[in-house]
Structures are given as C-alpha cells and as structure tokens.
Amino acid sequence: MLCISLGTVRGRVRPALAMLLWLAVATGRTPAVHAQETPPSAATPTATAEGPADDLRRGVPRSAVRGYLEACWARDYERAAQYLDLRRVPHASRDAQGATLAQHLCTVIDRTLWIDPELLSGVKEGAQEDGLPPRRDLVGTIQTAKAPVQLLVERVPREDGTLIWKISSTNVAQVPELYQEFSYGSLVERLPAFFHETRFLQLQLFQWIGFLFLLVTVVPVSWALAHLMLWVLRTLAARTRTRVDDALVTHTAGPLQLTVAVLLFYVGTLLLAFTARARALVDIGSQILALVAFTWVLLRVIDFLARVAEERYLGPRRHIAALVPLCRRTAKAFVVILAVLATVQNLGYNVTSLLAGLGIGGLAVALAAQKTVEHVFGSVTLVTDAPVRVGDFCRFGDYTGTVEDIGLRSTRVRSLDRTIISIPNGELASMKIENFSKRDRIRFHVTLGLRYETSPDQLRFVLVELKRLLLSHPKVDPIPARARFIGLGAYSLDVEIFAFIMTTDPEEFLAIREDLLLRIMELIAAAGTGFAFPSQTTYVAQDSAFDTTKSRAAEEQVRAWRAANALCLPDVPAGQASALRGQLRYPPEGAAR
Fold first, then answer.
1. Residue 16: strand, helix, or coil
2. Which fold has domain 442-535+545-580?
3. pLDDT tens digits, 471-502
4. How far apart are CA 142 and CA 18, in angstroms?
5. What per-residue confidence (pLDDT) applies to 320?
6. Domain 369-438 belongs to what architecture?
C-alpha cells in the first residue's frame, strides 16, 4: 500500500479535513498548519481560563499562536513580531529586525509545519504533562537537514511583569539559519513584491503562475519522453527472439506516459516551494495518480497474459483456455479492490477498521444477494467441471445453441434462430446439459416399415443386403452396425437399422445419412418390395401386383445362400465382414467432387 505521512496531530490528519482547514484559512478563518508533534494536552483542549488581559491575546498558548499566524496571513509583520521573544536581539535593532524575523519565521512555518492552534493548550499555565519544562509548550517539530528543531512557545514577563506566551527566544535565534534552508531562494526573492504579496488560497502569485505553466507543459513533455522511452524499449525488445516483450511494451504505453507525467508534475511542484498545506495535497494527488498508473499497468499486463494464455491453449487443451476469461476478470477485480483500498489508506482512513466494517456489511449483502452469489459459484463450477466450453453446441433444457461466452453471472448462448440467450450460471449448473460437441461419433438410427406382402425370403434378402451395406460403407463404424427384423407392426414389417457414423461434423453427418437412405431405397426396390404406410383407402380395383421377376430372383438368391450355408443371418461371418469393409464408394459414383 502507498501511504502518505502527513505527520501527527494527535495521529494522522485526514487530507479531506486538511483541505477544509486550508480553505478556511483562505477565507480569513483560523489558520491550520501541519505540525509534526503535539503536546499530550491536545487530546482534550480546555478553554477554562483565558489568561491575563492582553491586547494581543497572548495570555494562553492557543491564542498566542493563533494571533501570530493571523498577523502573518495579514502580512502585518510588525504586529507579528510582538509574538516573538526578542530578548536575545539587541535593543537598538529590535524594531528593525523583529518584523524581518517574524516574516522569515512565517516562511519557515509555511514550508515545514501544519499547525492547528485549537490543539494547543487553552489555559494560562500551558500543558502540564507534555514532558517539557514548566512554562514551555510544544507547537511543532521542524525537520531540518541537520537535526529536528522544536518550535516552542514560552511564558515570559511582559513590560509590566505580567506573564504572557511568546515564541521562545531560542527559536527566534534559530530563524536566520532556518530561513537559509527553507527560503524560496534568491531568484524568487528578487521578483517584484507584487508576486509575493498577491495570494489566492494562500499560494503566492509566482507559485500559481508556475503551477499553471507546469500543467500546460507537463502533458506534451511527458508524451515526448514516454515515446522516447517506448522507442528505446521497442528497440531492445526487437533484439530478443520472443515477441512477447514487444507486445508487452505496446500494452504498457499508456500507463508509462501517465507515470512520466506524474513524476514531472511532482518534481515541478517541488521547485515551486509550496507551503506544507499545499505540499500535502500535492503529495496525495501525485501518489493517487501514481497508484492509478500502477493499477493501469497491472490491468494491461493481466489482459496481455490472458491473451497469450488463450492463444497457447486454444488447441488440444481448449478446456484450459475456457478458464482464462474468468481468471482474467477475477484478477482484474482483485487488483481494482486493492487499488481502492490503497487509495482509501492514502486518504488517511484506517483500512483495517474499514475491512472489519465491510465484513459485517458483507454478511448482510451476501444474504441479500444470494442469487448473485449462486450464479458466481455456478460460473466457477462450469469452468472447473467444464461440462461446456466456449464454442460447444449443446442442448440446455429447452434451449439449443452454441456457447459464446461464460461470464461471472451468466452464460450467453447463440440459438438456432441466431438470437442470444443469457442463462444464469446458477440455473445452468443445475441443468441437464447435452453437449453435442463432445461426441466422437454420431448415431444413425432408422426403422423401416415394409409392406405385409413382403415374403420371408424377400425380408431375408433385405436384411442381408442392409448388413452388407453397413459393413461396406467406409463412413459407418462396423461395431455395432446392425439391421434386425424387430416386429410385426400394425401396418408394416418393422426393420431396425442401427449404426454409428464416423464423424463429429453435423453437416458431414447429414450428407452421409442422405447417402445411406438413398442406398436403402435402392435396396428395397431391388428386393421387389416397398415401404408400408398407414392408409384407410377402400380398394375398388385390384391392387398392382409385385414385380414377380424380382421376387423370384430374390427368393432364388436366398435359396442359393441357404444351400451353400452362406446365409448371413443372424450375423455376417467375420471373414466376409472384413472382406466387405470399404467396398462401396463414398461419395457414391456420379457425385460431384
């Protein structure tokens, strides 16, 4: 998690509250400046005694610090100097140096501290349990290059002997050295006074000009730098054997440009020497944008890896490829949740307590969203158990179609009418699913109804020829290809044909079945019989007779088979079955190729 330390004013100050305090300062209210340390008494500031009467309200630490800050914001540094303990300054130059010291100390505080006077002691004796000597209170700690410097207010005697609170003489003596480290620099100080005295939202005019210039230039400069870096990365990637790194560089182009822009913006704001309040807000914004760029990179990488996985497992291990969309969405959701939690942490909130609250609220949400949770778990079941995959042609209850997508909540199916049917995964997981795409062969099952005028020998001829047909067809699996006389129907002699066509393509199966049916019709005609059909016709004329020549030929052939002990009933001998295998031509002779 990326976190911003805004110091401790009784812990961490939430940036949202900090912004409100900052805006309050801009409208003339009590200034609130970040402090590194706060006395223990700040936990429960009391406003009991206001201290001795004083025109500048220096009777208690709280009002003394507030008065100094208000004078600084009003740029009345002569008045602000009266809040400083100038006893170490020579009396002759005290008036001249006092205003300068007050102004320089104000600049140091603006650059380094965030003080909230309301957290200081409101009694005339000051904080009693802060671990400091009596008559001293801590305002904040300035982090310098050498060592931390404590900013203190001290209770000192006024001209008439009354004890009042002022910024300690020790800190006043340290102001020149502190100002040398935290000043705006000689170049900025040479600008006309108008650029310093004109303020908006407590930022000086030169800072606003630099900030606007930064906003205008950071986009084109970051675009140019990002494209230069991309050119270098693509050149290096082109030298490798794999193409994975080339595609990865292309996928991260957008996040890289955003990262460069954030970095340039952050460095530019450092040169503008913002106040501690503005610095904190810029830090928050920069780190949130950096977090967005990092999240963007992760999302792009997840999409790229998912595409690589789909291409790799699209062949024989297609069931693994079906897991990729679900894994991609889950990983992206997980990354986004982490990014949101990191953003909340950066805004100063305790994520641990937030997660605890979400745990209780999550139970209520889970109870209210049982169906949604059921569908999510159904999607997991569909992906792990893999009864269907994307591209499979299936029957789902009353629906038939091709699976186009398996989502987190529902599965989309392209129906035979070319419409899209969305089936909730919870329901789909409990359905009886018939997956036609998993067939290794397709069944050929036909029941022939022959006329009752068919003689037994004609029927035997038909059965033998049907078995020969099935065994000799190259697209029919010989095991278990069979043709059996199965019953005497109400108006027909029923013959069942059962076999498996060696194809998984529905279109090819239709063509093979068509060929077999046509050959069966020719076979029935060659036997001199015909197909029976239900009829209630009253015959007033003699029915047409069978073809007696073909009938006698079929009967003589059966007698010849019987005499030679070669009648292939009930089964064709194994030797003859092997010899017959593949003798017929398919596609049949005369078919277009």
1. helix
2. Alpha-Beta Plaits (3.30.70)
3. 999 999 988 889 999 999 888 999 999 999 99
4. 19
5. 54
6. Roll (2.30)
Sign of the Cα pseudo-torsion (265, 266, 272, 277, in order) = positive
Q: Which helix (H) or strand (E) holds 138?
A: strand 136-143
Global pTM? 0.43
d(CA 245, CA 223): 21
Whole-angstrom distance, CA of residue 338 vs CA of residue 8: 25
Phi-psi region of 105 (alpha: psi -120 to 50; beta: other; left: phi over 0): alpha
Let me know if the fold of 369-438 is the same as that of 442-535+545-580.
no
- pLDDT-wise least confident of 23-27, 135-139, 340-344, 442-446: 23-27
Residue 440 φ then ψ, to 5°: -90, -20
With 0-12 CB in 10 A as exposed, 13-18 as middle and 19+ as buried, what is 366?
A: exposed
At residue 312, the pLDDT reads: 67
DSSP state for residue 193 in the 8-state scheme: H
Q: If we measure between CA atoms, which residue out of 439, 505, 499, 496 comes closest to residue 474?
A: 499
- The label of the residue with tokens 């697209």 reads 475
Distance CA 548, CA 474 (A): 34
**Nearest by Cα to 252 from 305, 216, 320:** 305
Across residues 242-255, what is the average pLDDT?
72
Contact indicator for 31, 120 with CB cutoff of 8 Å? no
Q: What is the DSSP string of 305-363?
A: HHHHHHHHSSSTTHHHHTHHHHHHHHHHHHHHHHHHHHHHHHTT--HHHHHHHHHHHHH
Whole-angstrom CA distances from 371 to 274, 378, 411, 583 are 53, 10, 15, 59
Query: Which tokens belong to 44?
Result: 């429960």
DSSP 382: H
For residue 273, the model assigns a pLDDT of 64
> For residue 543, what is the enclosing H or E element?
none
* Res 445 pLDDT > 90: yes
Dihedrals φ, ψ of 327, to 5°? -65, -40
Q: Which two tokens stand for residue 78?
A: 């002569």
d(CA 202, CA 25): 8
Sketch the domain layout of the chain as residue ranges: 15-183, 205-363, 369-438, 442-535+545-580
The pLDDT tens digits of the residues spanning 35-52 come to 444 444 443 443 345 677
Q: Crossing angle for the helix pair 94-112 and 169-182, nearest 10 degrees? A: 60
pLDDT tops 50 at residue 11: no
- Expressed in angstroms, the distance from the first to the final Cα of the chain is 67
Candidates 39, 38, 106, 114; CA nearest to 76 is 106
Query: DSSP assignment, residue 513?
Result: H
Output the CA–CA distances (angstroms, integers) from residue 524 to 448, 457, 517, 579, in the order listed. Answer: 10, 13, 11, 23
DSSP 450-511: E-TT--HHHHHHHHHHHHHHHHH-TTEEEEEEEEEEEEE-SSSEEEEEEEEES---HHHHHH
Helix (H), strand (E) at residue 553: helix 548-563
- Token pair listed for 151: 């900013």
Q: How high is the pLDDT of residue 47?
A: 39
Give the strands of the sheet with 442-450, arranged side by side: 442-450, 493-501, 476-488
Range with top average pLDDT, 202-216, 393-407, 550-564? 550-564
